[in-house]
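Show me any protein, fold above all:
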Amino acid sequence: MVNVRVMPTSDAAARICQRLGGPLPVVPNSVVEAGPRHILWLGPDEWLVVGPDGDTELHDLLKEPSASIVDVSANRTTIEVRSRDLLEHGCTLDLHPRAFHAGRCAQTTIARTQVILWQTSDEPVYRLLVRGSFATYLADWLSDASGT
């Protein structure tokens, strides 16, 4: 998992897209699938690239001199949730399918914890990318809110 900050119209962005095998999304809160990787829009000049473990090509991006590219793999823990109702207990976003659906992401808070919320399928399945130091708290909150 790497954080990419680059001007989207720059030559560096074009080189990054070529290496990733897909474009950097420009639509706010969208996700682009590029082979085994997913590129999440975080801001006009910021993306999170999520790839499989051991993705050496992804780590080769760190060598791009004209962009800020940081390995944040150790920074975030992924929690998968399969319940829109559960998330709505602690999240102020409108998660109704007409507003938030597969291929969407947003930086938000759930139970007062900052997360990147990413809906990966219409079932619905969500991935919560949370800082490692808050992961246990959020997992406990989700467990309590679900009644398990």
